[in-house]
Amino acid sequence: MTDTTPLLEATGIDHDYGTVSVLRDVSVTIECGRVTALIGPNGAGKSTLIRDLAGLHEPTAGTITYNGPDTAREIGYLPQHPAFRPGFTALETLQFYASLVGDDETDAMAQLERVGLENAADRPVEALSGGMTRLLGIAQATIGDPPIVILDEPGSGLDPSMGLHVFDVAADLADEGIAVLLSSHDLELVEQVADDLLILADGRVAEQGSIADVRARVGGSSLRQVYEHAVGGHRDTVQVVGDHA
Amino acid sequence: MSGDVNTPSDSTRDRPTEQFGRSQSTAPGPRHILRTIIGRELRTLVRTRTFFILTLAFAAVVLGISSVSGSVQGGYVPTLVDLLTPLELLVPVVAIAFGYRAILGDAERGELDVLKTYPVSSREIVAGVYVGRAIGLLTAIVAPLVVTVLLVFVAEEEGRTLYASHSGVDSPILFGRFIVLTILFALTVLAIAIAISAVVSGTRSAIALSVVALVVLLVGFDLALVYGFSAGSIGDGSLVYALALSPLSAYRGLVFESAIVVASGTGPAAASPIASLVSLVVWTATSLGIATWVLNR
């Protein structure tokens, strides 16, 4: 990919919930073929930023620009706690979503295979494990081959091997040219998989750039050290994010 | 690049297609989207035991009333007279049960958020859910009424043995009108249920609001009309129009005007048919409009 124009550009994003300011002047770019990891303490505004970028709600201020190709679905999205309508199999669930972008059963099955869930195609969604449900959610996020896939804490609550598998799937998506943005608290997996880093702290961008650049700028031999340096704060105090706007 | 959207705030989303809209050439058309959503609703109804039990219970009550009361031997109009009051209660209950969680379920699971990343408008979601649920609801309601018509037909063939207190110009056409009006009433209440399912944020509030809606619908409006009439704020001349404001009164009035009064041949005006029909349509359109607006927020 020689075109360096980011697929998604967010500039000066503010997001207020009533009088509480959750995001302040956040700017971020999402580039194709790269995994961008969004990390930060609980309540730093990660999910709010993700929902803004995915178009689920409008930021209070700022600009979000999509520069990707004209397609039926521009952004795929995995919610933090994916769940599906009971009474349907995994394949039927994906068929429903696939039909919304004009795809058929073959395409739905291909997305299941992409995440390694083909053997569970006929299993009811309510009988899927937490990890399998997350994988089905990722398969859903890739329906319609969106150029951008946003995953909200895809590894949350999964055992180590399933968490690794989920991150591997995200890396594979990037290898196929998709721009992947994922949020996570698992810094080891982020370090293994992510190309770029966006550290949010107190609703602001604390650090941003490729992992190598951020590490060189901030210092520290591991991502954990980079994270602690960037986020700061005290471990024995819960950070209450969101100044009054 | 098209579609700069300036919100009331200072934010701008600059992309080929605004979310919840469709300008991409590769997106399927509205008919395909609607078919997909309707199909999902129908499969959900077929696979959910609760709806099946509800349908059986409704059929048992309708067939039980018309058979046990002996009205099927009396004819079509006596049967519809016997069924009218039970249906005034049962149709709203069944319609609310079919719709009160229709959109809420997707919202609770986060699927509504996911749908926003697809080329599907909120109008299509509401319309698809409504039509899908309506097909299931009408199947549940119309099937036992059609069986009742057949029972009356068979009883007529065997000869009437009971005195029909409502006998006048008895006709299956009058019962057909009753079925059509019951369908309209059911569709209206279902639309209200869909609005409830879009407005609420949890199952408890959905149940609470559904109960409130049922009480207002079944009792509240009628009590208000009685109070207004007795207090003199509703005059004799405007009573039939005031009755049209309530979906239940509108339905009842339409049944009286188009079936019962026709059969009896005489009687005072029970309702304004036009006003009653307009009321049902307005209730339906407003409810679906509210649901769409809530999803668009």
UniProtKB/TrEMBL annotation, chain A:
One of its GO terms (molecular function) is ATP binding. PROSITE patterns: ABC_TRANSPORTER_2. InterPro entries: AAA+_ATPase, ABC_transporter-like_ATP-bd, P-loop_NTPase. Pfam families: ABC_tran (PF00005). It comes from the Archaea. Keywords: ATP-binding, Nucleotide-binding, Transport. The keyword Zinc does not apply. Residues 8-227 form the ABC transporter domain. Belongs to the ABC transporter superfamily. This is ABC transporter. It comes from Natrinema limicola JCM 13563.
UniProtKB/TrEMBL annotation, chain B:
Keywords: Membrane, Transmembrane, Transmembrane helix. The chain crosses the membrane at residues 50-72, 84-104, 125-154, 174-200, 207-227, 274-295. GO terms for molecular function: ABC-type transporter activity. One of its GO terms (cellular component) is plasma membrane. Residues 1-29 are annotated as: Disordered. It comes from the Archaea. The keyword Lipid metabolism does not apply. Residues 1-10 have a biased composition (Polar residues). This is Copper ABC transporter permease. It comes from Natrinema limicola JCM 13563.
